[in-house]
Amino acid sequence: MAWNKPIPNVEKALKPFWEGLKNHRFLLLKCNECGAWYWPATYCRNHRNKPFFGSLSWTGASGQGKIVSYNITRVAMRPAFKDDVPYVYALIQLSEGPMISSNIINCAPESVYIDMPVRVVYRDVPEISMTIPYFEPDTAAKDMHRRGQP
């Protein structure tokens, strides 16, 4: 299916994140000094930083998290999304701590709920030379939680 949606605007500071997605790697910024995780690009809030993001490194992250808020869109606000409705747009708290927003796919919109465990899914889009991150229910995490495991 051809990509007919807006193309993400990739800021220079976030280029490594998008390059990681092309390789199906979910990268976040991690502080080299205290281990705090960040998204989007920022400086560590826990101490003084080295210039030019010198205290942070792009590091492989789990790509897992839980939904903290969501919206089910039933009316497309732009023609490019008319074939997608209804769809779920969610705010996801990643396991590492930061929050990211994305669409929830591979489940009925009505089955989405707060605290639902999710994991990243990569959609390669050759016509724009990008990989777009979506999230889907993480059934393995849900099963572990039911059995009382963290």
Folded structure, characterized:
It is built from 2 helices and 8 strands. The chain is mainly beta and 150 residues long. The protein folds into 2 domains: 10-61, no CATH class; 62-150, Beta Barrel (OB fold (Dihydrolipoamide Acetyltransferase, E2P)), CATH 2.40.50. The N and C termini lie far apart (38 Å).
Could you give a short description of this structure?
The protein is mainly β and 150 residues long. It is 11% helix and 35% strand. It is built from two helices and eight strands.
Topology at a glance:
Elements: H1 15-22, E1 27-31, E2 37-38, E3 56-60, E4 64-73, E5 87-94, E6 99-104, E7 117-125, E8 130-137, H2 139-146
Antiparallel strand pairs: 1-2, 1-3, 4-5, 4-7, 5-6, 7-8
List keywords for this structure.
single chain; mainly beta; 2 helices; three-stranded antiparallel β-sheet; OB fold (Dihydrolipoamide Acetyltransferase, E2P); globular; 150 residues; five-stranded antiparallel β-sheet; 2 domains
Number of strands: 8
Poorly predicted runs are none
Q: Alpha-carbon distance between the termini? A: 38 Å
Q: Supply the number of helical segments.
A: 2
Strand order of the largest sheet: 6-5-4-7-8
Inertia-based shape = globular
Task: State the CATH topology of the largest domain.
Answer: OB fold (Dihydrolipoamide Acetyltransferase, E2P)
* Tally of separate domains: 2
